Amino acid sequence: MRLTLAYCLLYLKVAVALFSVPTVIDDESAGQLGFAGNYAGISNIMSNLQSQSAMNQSVLLRTVEGIYQKVSNFQGNITSSCVFQNSIYFGGQFETVNQTMTVNHIVKFDINTSKFEPLQNGLNGPVYTLYCDESDQLIYIGGNFSSPIETNSTMSNVASWNTNNQTWSLLPWKGFNGPVYTITKNKKYNTVLFGGRFDATGDGQFFNSNTSQLVPMNAPTPWYLQDGVPGYWDANFANPVEPTVFRLSNTHTDKGTISFNILALGWNNYFNLSYVDPVTQQTIVCSKHCILSNNTYQDFTVVDAISATGIRININSWFGSGGGLSFVQIYQIIDISVNPHLNTNDSQCNPTASSTQTTVTGNWKDVYVFGYYQTVLVANVPYTELATSNTAIVYEPNIPTQGQYDVYATTPGCVGSSNCFTRTQVEYQLELSPGFPVTSIISDQNTFEDHRILLYSGYISPVSTNFRPSIALRPAPNAKSPAMGENVQIMADTIEFVRNVTAAPLVSILEYNPTNQLPIGSTVYSIDASNGDILYIGGDFTSPNNSAFRNIITYDNQLGQLIPLNNGSAALNGRVSKLLLSNSILYVGGEFNTSDTLPLNHVAQFDTLKKMWAPLGNGVDGPVTHLLISPDNNTLTVSGHFNHRYHSTNISKVSLGNAQWDIPTQTWTERSSLMVGQITTDDQSLFAGSIVGAQTYRADLVVSSNLNSSRFIFNHSTIVTAGITWLNNKTSEVATIIAGHHGGESNVTISGVAIYYNKTGQLVPIDQFRGYVYSLATFEDKLYVGGQFLPNNGRNQSASLAIYDLKNNNSYVPAHGVTDENNNPGMVQVIKIHPDGKKVLIGGKFAKVGLLECNAVCAIDPVSRQWTPIALGLTGTVNDIIISSENQKITVVGDLNVQNEPTAAIATATDSQNSWLLAWDKTQLSGIPVSAVNSIDNEIIVAGKSAVNPNEFFVGTLKDKTYNSLVSNLEQGTSISQLLIVPVTSTLEERYPAGTQNMLLAVGTLNIQGFGNASAALYDGKIWNPYLLTTQLNGQPGSIQKVIHVTDFRGIKNGRHYLSVAAVILISIAISVGILFLMSAAALLFLFKQHKSTKGPDDMPPWAPSNRLVDALGLFGTGSLGAATIAATAAGAGAAEGSTTGRSAATGPSNATSRAIFQHDDGDIGVYSPTTTIVNPIPITAAAAAAGILSFDSMVATAKSNTTSIVNETHPKLFQAKYPFKAQEFGELSLEAGDILVVTDTTDNIWWLGYKDGGMNRPLSGVFPSNYVKA
């Protein structure tokens, strides 16, 4: 579990519509609140659009006053976006938005209205890139699609949307034959660039010949080798072919091919091939050992051209029981040669419907022509039957793309075939485009030499489902009779279709009129054209010699040349996915890890002026897909499939999906907020992508109410488990003491405790432990550390408990160890300060402290450090301790065994009893309690979990053996780790307990009906209102485990007042006449520090804080506040004796001390103990009867009799207020000019303690500025 710590003032400005959430926790009474838990980001809940749940799909988030609100869900991935006027266009692999609107891969979002609008019916395939062209009012869209849905338009892989008329706009070249990954504009030349993996435009004007012509074959599918035996697959051709690409498909079954090679028959040379690895997306060159994927077909491009009469595919290794192939396709050069042949029943080389083919009718035979060195077809037809003969050959070329072609027919000379006197004329009938008339060409074959004639030059349509270009060869009408004999012979040989290319070839990038292209087989993923004259191109490609450039290149528009980045060579060893030029620095992201010899992990920067590479820290640990720069060019957001960023010091930080690079300082930096996941859009207030979590503040530790300015972020390997605030009496500096752990050597957990000084940001180690630390507490400048850790004899460190003197350089104070029955380290889960100031309680799971048998709960005297059991008969695990201020009854909760009752859940003990008493068992509570808090009228509130079902929980009140559930709108999956009653300021909502200005705060994981998960919620007496959200670094929902109090709660007007359970320190309270108020030095001095700058008409003298626990109030020493003495003076010795009868000793307060509550200037309020037990006000007459206290006039009479300079409880002195003073904190006394005051403590030179007439002759006590009064 990861526990992080934050101190914050949390303001809830906007109430969730479904819940009555208080406007704000009363920070003046509650002070600063700290939250420890398993989270890395925290937010106030201000809207029901917020969430801490992990988001499985892409989302659009909007920030309102720092609060991330979910606008929409995309059922798929957002890959790109662009801004056009007041709208953002999103593209990706999604079909719907919010599961209600069908948009099909592209949608428009209106920023002003927050409404989505589809682009008609969308596109029929994913979108990879968008470019918004403000000047032309067009949105260019690239991806892997064939057309907009329900249109007749052909826009293969690229489309444009006209923003003026809200319609699709046709591009003149009708798209590309492969996916488009990037689109950008060169504004200097007003040209739009498209990059991807394509080699032809839709209109055929640009193409690549490598995969344009399929060699006719008809192999059986699938084809398997004999199990366990290597073998080969052969194909033999009637005429030589020059393969450019081999397209192979594995079997897609449980057996198939792993490695292979291809042999050119006739030459017996292996083809050198290149292919893109489907996993790494890297281009690999192979010859004798090529790897075939089993996912889909793969293209293997021939690196060095070889002409062959056949090929052999050797299968070297396989998976399963044997090798095999699903299909084989061989492509050749675009200059298409259609060779006529007879049907020979050769199953491996018969033509198919999708390849070049010939159809032969009539009496034809193969004849070898000497001198021509080839076999041709010859038909022998009687001349008298020539006019009615069906003799013909139909040539049907596979024209892959439309364009201009030259068509040639070749006739071998008659000498080599010995038929010079029997040849005649033939007719070629050309049908090359649909809708055009058939063209006839007459040619005389009676030629002595080989003759190649041009049959046609012009436009030819490509092959489609409705049309195939064809040329028919048959005897010409009115053909001449033979010079000898009665028969004529018709010759049929090759017809060639030669592309008339006037433009440059097209390889994966298109700009109007490019003159230079990338190597064949390249893929372009990113283009930056912001420079204008220099284009920066990134992708997956390699220069022909594999040395000039690799995966990144520049194109000089003025020179018309591809140029390496550093004018010599530039190579990144993996795909470049994104380029971004800012000033003279080119930022590069992708799947690489080196450039030449420089390590560059997936992201780098290139200085275009100095021609030098540099890393961003030490990069990130996964592929980078997006680079986003802030408007001021100072911050670069890097996003992709990674989990960590690496700093230059080799320190790794968790950065799931994104990281921020600070350009001026050249370092990785933390966001002020938490954003987890991949970011594709960052438009200041709008964020989109695969974002799995976002919260307002990114902090593991925040130590002031200004969260943003006092953040502290730990190394991700440190898990914070406890925290407490301490005020250094020597320096008056507030510090936060924290405990956390990390893995050590041999998997031993090492925990550390350190002080973080809030003002300076300095972190000072105190000590470390072999094990875990679970609890911290401070008392009289002593730090108590509890947990489960091993003793360290070399450092006199005891097991599971340690004490340190904070005012003496954090020196170790020897203490007994806490162990189980086998002398192994026990577990201390909770440390509480007893309100009598005489003992510190520890609770957990243990059997002994030192040699003393003391189970589950034990008490230590903070002065003598002697241990004593609280009572007998308790074992098990104590999870929490609460103490009543009325009778000082101790209540423990947990998984207990009380007086041999194993199902106990709650037990109690008092000073007057020697045995623990069973209060509640687990069956009555439906589980094991983990937290408890005192409420009003002897009522306590408990929360816990089921011992059987982890999804079940309980929370409710206990009083007089009656349990009242407070579950209300909490649902299964809730886990409450701590309860606390807190004051709130607004009077508009319900309150709990009723009649107060408070609510019940619960932290943990709270599943609230109609809202979802929250980390903190407030109960108003009817329902739970979501209050705080948290998220972990991995994007999963966070949780709060502990609430930490910095100061005590202040009294609240018009209602009973609460002073909280101090989670980590003893909180101050006051002592009035006859009533003992225990106040810790830390809390008091913090109060003094808060009001140190409070000034009246005169400047206050310098303040020198006291180091004694209660010297500032003079509470201890004699144990008397002067009430008895005053009473004795006014009413006689009997009254004095009555006032001291309840005291067991004169050294401090006792359990029998009488209490009186005096009215504060805020109205009818109560004063409550640090255990949040609420005490009802006692009438003055009852107080006087109980403690011998008389009227304020009697106190004035006593003070007048003091003519000495001594001022204390036994010698009070009379003063008068010079100026009015308004109390600002609990414990302060409001004054009006002229008020008569009885002062009992002047040991602090700024704040004095005294009494005034509170009305009806009742004394009212408090502290006030010393320079506001005069003698």
Task: Characterize the structure shown.
This protein has 1271 residues and is mainly beta. The chain contains 8 helices and 95 strands. A hairpin with a 6-residue loop joins strand 72 and strand 73 (840-845). Strands 4, 5, 6, 7, 8, 9, 59 and 60 form an 8-stranded antiparallel beta sheet that branches. It has a 7-stranded antiparallel beta sheet with strand order 64-65-66-67-68-69-70. A 6-stranded antiparallel beta sheet has the order 61-3-89-88-87-86. It is 4% helix and 44% strand. The model is unreliable at 1-23, 344-354 and 1047-1189 (pLDDT under 50).
Give the helix/strand layout:
Layout: E1 4-8, H1 27-30, E2 33-38, E3 41-44, E4 58-64, E5 67-84, E6 87-97, E7 101-102, E8 106-110, E9 115-118, E10 127-133, E11 138-143, E12 158-162, E13 167-169, E14 180-186, E15 191-196, E16 213-214, E17 223-224, E18 231-241, E19 243-249, E20 256-265, E21 269-270, E22 273-276, E23 283-286, E24 290-291, E25 298-302, E26 308-319, E27 324-325, E28 327-332, E29 336-338, E30 357-361, E31 364-369, E32 374-382, E33 392-396, E34 403-411, H2 414-417, E35 425-431, E36 439-444, E37 451-460, E38 470-475, E39 487-492, E40 495-499, E41 509-510, E42 523-528, E43 534-542, E44 549-556, E45 561-563, E46 570-571, E47 576-582, E48 585-590, E49 594-595, E50 598-599, E51 603-607, E52 612-615, E53 624-629, E54 635-640, E55 644-646, E56 652-654, E57 658-662, E58 667-669, E59 674-682, E60 686-695, E61 697-698, E62 701-702, E63 711-712, E64 719-728, E65 733-743, E66 749-757, E67 763-779, E68 782-789, E69 801-805, E70 811-813, E71 818-819, E72 827-833, E73 840-845, E74 848-849, E75 852-853, E76 857-860, E77 867-869, E78 874-883, ...
